[in-house]
Amino acid sequence: MARRLVSKRRQTANATAQDPLLRLRQMRPVAVRLPVSFAEALTAYTAEQRRDNRSRRHRVNRAWIEALDSVLGAYGRDYGGRSQVQTVANGLVKVGVDSPALAHELGVVNRRALLERLQELLKGLETIVDLTVRVVSSGMLTPMRPERFVVSNNTPETESDED
Question: What pLDDT, in 10s, does the model give residues 26-36?
C-alpha cells in the first residue's frame, strides 16, 4: 500500500464555509422526517406557546416596574420588589402582591394611572385593557432579578464639606 506523503487537510465545521448560513446548512441533519405524529406536533406547539407566554410576561413585568417607578416615584422601586405580573391574557394583566394594603393602593387608588402608563409603554406590542391586583402568598412571588432594576443615575454623588 502506498504511503501518502502529503497529509490531507481536515475540515472542521468552522472551516467548511465562510458564510454562516452555509455552515448551518452543512451541519443540519440530512434526514428530516416529514410525516410528524400529532403528539409531536402538539408538543412542539405547546413548547412554542410557553416560550411566547414567558417572554410576553417578562416584557409586561418590565413595563410594570417602569410604570411603578414613573407613577409612584420613590415608592415604585420598593413596590416593584413586592409585586409581580402573574398572567397576561386577553388584554387583562393580573398582578400579585404580598399585602392587602399594597393591593388596595395599586389596584384601587393608583389603578387608572398605572393602567394608562402600561398602555403607553406597551403600545404596539401588547393590548392592555384592564388591570387586576390581587394578594398572593409570599411563596408565589419569585424574587426579582437584579437586571430588572436598572438604576439610571448619571450624576455622581459628591459629598460637600461645608463647615
Answer: 665 555 555 66
The answer to whether position 162 is within a domain reads: no
DSSP 8-state assignment for residue 83: E
Identify the domain containing residue 69 by its residue range: 42-144
pLDDT over 90 percentage in the chain: 26
Whole-angstrom distance, CA of residue 63 vs CA of residue 69: 10
DSSP, collapsed to helix, strand or coil, labels residue 149 as coil
Q: What are the DSSP calls for 98-132, one per residue? A: S-HHHHHIIIIISHHHHHHHHHHHTTTT----EEE
- Whether the model clears a pTM of 0.70, i.e. scores above it, the answer is no
Residue 52 CA: distances (Å) to CA of 11, 95, 142, 156, 158: 38, 19, 19, 39, 45
Does residue 106 sit within a domain? yes
How many domains, in total, are found in the chain? 1
Q: Is residue 115 included in any domain, yes or no?
A: yes
